[in-house]
Amino acid sequence: MIGCSFVVNRKFFGEIGLLDPGMDVYGGENIELGIKVWLCGGSMEVLPCSRVAHIERKKKPYNNNIGFYTKRNALRVAEVWMDDYKWHVYIAWNLPLENPGIDIGDVSERKALRKSLKCKNFQWYLDHVYPEMRRYNNTIAYGELRNNKAKDVCLDQGPQENHTAILYPCHGWGPQVRLCPGLGR
Question: 59 is in which domain, residue-wise?
Answer without folding.
Answer: 1-134
